[in-house]
Design a protein that fits this description.
Blueprint lengths: L1 H38 L3 H29 L1 H20 L4 H29 L5 H5 L1 H20 L4 H10 L2 H10 L7 H6 L3 H12 L2 H15 L11 H5 L3 H19 L2 H6 L1 H8 L4 H25 L5 H24 L1 H6 L3 H33 L6 H53 L8 H9 L9 H13 L1
Helix pairs in contact: 1-4, 1-6, 1-7, 1-8, 1-10, 2-3, 2-4, 2-20, 3-4, 3-7, 3-8, 4-19, 4-20, 6-7, 6-16, 6-19, 10-11, 13-19, 13-20, 15-16, 16-19, 17-19, 17-20, 21-22
């Protein structure tokens, strides 16, 4: 149906910002090898260069949340892509490490700006029955971006050293270019339009994406109620409500922001950014073979996201999170074991077995990540917050993820020196085990509920897993009439 095509088209548009992030993560794993040689940078400079994008994206994220409330979700995503494009151009033609860092900082701001809004935009468009699938599209795009980055590394590695890394980084401009092309035909979020009291525009958008007229009117009524348009309640949120949260908001923040942080501190970016270092420690000597193997890792990560897409709206969020975190715990421990025993296996003539075990552990780890922790974090952070807080709170969750990613990326080499590469992955395995407990205690099941129903349940001070949403709504309506 036409309205379904429009919804998917909007989801793909919003997800192009995630292709930018994924491409940067994937391409940097190989490009940094040649940047280090060409510009003669130190190991500390290498860590800062790789990890600073995540830290600097905090600025974009913090600005992006209020900006999307002020000028709209669509324009905020467009500005983010434009800023990223400018940073990529600066990096491509950088004559020195200082200019290269400047481009990297600009790129980080652009990524933070776009990511803070993209998942929110998709969630605000999506029907409840397919929201999990649609909001998981960004994770597909991250994986596609990572795979393209790995392929770019392999394809351009044979060029002269002072040229190859520039082309690798320059190719990252293309997704931002596609955003610019599609921008004019993308509609604004209907929920944002309602918050601005632009009801007729919101109705027009819902008609395009919502199907039957009676369904559109009911959705519009629910959105107006959630936005408190009809009650005269102040509909512009402030960070004060987040800094001094009510019990309901506290539950939202714990689940939405907490899961975003666990997504990163379990070490996925370190695994991807430094996959050549990991594979070298596993015993692979050839640089070309290492880069070829990373393509296989990227392919695995991309394929298994399809498992999440298929099951997320069928079995629910928590089941996939359990499978993901438990599987990652085992695989990270297996990788630590393979790296710890590498020398012993080499001396025993079993080096090929050790290399195979390490590659299997890396591929299995990224597969389990793609099944649950990768996509579901974006789903939860976009659907669990109330409409008035959604943009700012989701941006805050994104900031937590980017800070965690930056700290992991910027400390990986130093930690590896201090406690060995194997020791770092044993540490990640322990953190992943803690994530299993976090999912059990803090994460609600939101499958099949509209954003307004989720908000009603959390406002009703009930656990979402057991809450009868209709009874909560009836109770609140009764109190209002009384």
């Amino acid at each position: 149906m036409m309205h379904q095509k429009i919804v998917y088209f909007c989801a793909i548009f919003a997800s192009l910002n995630f292709v930018l992030l994924g491409y940067d993560i994937g391409v940097m794993s190989g490009a940094i090898i040649y940047v280090k040689r060409d510009l003669d940078i130190t190991e500390v400079q290498q860590e800062i260069f790789v990890g600073c994008l995540s830290i600097v994206s905090i600025i974009g994220g913090l600005i992006g949340g209020p900006t999307s409330d002020s000028i709209g979700r669509k324009w905020t995503m467009g500005i983010g892509a434009l800023v990223f494009q400018a940073g990529a151009v600066v990096m491509t033609f950088a004559p020195s490490f200082t200019i290269l860092m400047l481009g990297r900082l600009i790129t980080g701001i652009g990524i933070g700006f776009g990511l803070s809004t993209s998942a929110v935009y998709i969630a605000e468009f999506s029907p409840a029955a397919t929201r999990g699938t649609l909001v998981a599209v960004p994770e597909i795009c991250i994986n596609i971006g990572i795979l393209l980055g790995y392929i770019s590394n392999y394809a351009f590695s044979g060029l002269p050293q002072h040229i190859n890394w520039r082309i690798m980084l320059g190719v990252g401009i293309l997704p931002a270019f596609f955003i610019a092309i599609t921008f004019p035909v993308i509609p604004e979020s209907p929920r944002w339009l309602v918050m601005q009291n632009r009801i007729e525009e919101a109705r027009s958008v819902l008609v395009k994406v919502g199907g039957k007229a009676e369904d559109v009117e009911q959705r519009l009524k629910d959105i107006q109620e959630a936005a408190c348009v009809n009650s005269g309640y102040k509909n512009q949120s402030s960070y004060r409500e987040i800094l001094f949260p009510s019990p309901a908001v506290r539950r939202m923040l714990a689940a939405g922001c907490g899961i975003m942080i666990f997504q990163q501190i379990t070490g996925i970016d370190a695994t991807v950014y430094y996959s050549p270092t990991i594979l070298k420690n596993a015993g692979i000597k050839s640089e070309k073979k290492i880069l070829a193997t990373t393509v296989g890792v990227g392919f695995t990560k991309t394929v298994f996201i399809l498992v999440a897409i298929f099951f997320i709206d069928k079995v629910g969020r928590k089941v996939l999170l359990y499978v993901s975190t438990i599987g990652m715990t085992v695989c990270l421990a297996m990788l630590g074991m393979a790296l710890a025993l590498q020398k012993h296996l080499s001396e025993s003539g079993m080096q090929d077995f050790g290399i195979g075990l390490a590659i299997f552990a890396v591929c299995s780890n990224v597969a389990f990540f793609s099944i649950g922790l990768g996509p579901i974090c974006w789903v939860l952070s976009s659907e669990i917050f109330s409409l008035r807080l959604r943009a700012k709170a989701s941006a805050l969750g994104g900031v937590g993820a980017r800070v965690s990613s930056g700290l992991v990326s910027m400390s990986f080499l130093s930690l590896s020196r201090a406690m060995s590469v194997a020791g770092v992955f044993f540490l990640f395995s322990g953190i992943s085990a803690v994530a299993v407990v976090f999912v059990t205690v803090c994460v609600p099941e939101t499958k099949g509920k509209t954003l307004e129903e989720i908000e009603m349940a959390l406002r009703g001070r009930e656990k979402l897993d057991q809450a009868d949403v209709e009874s909560v709504k009836t109770e609140q309506e009764t109190k209002t009439k009384a």
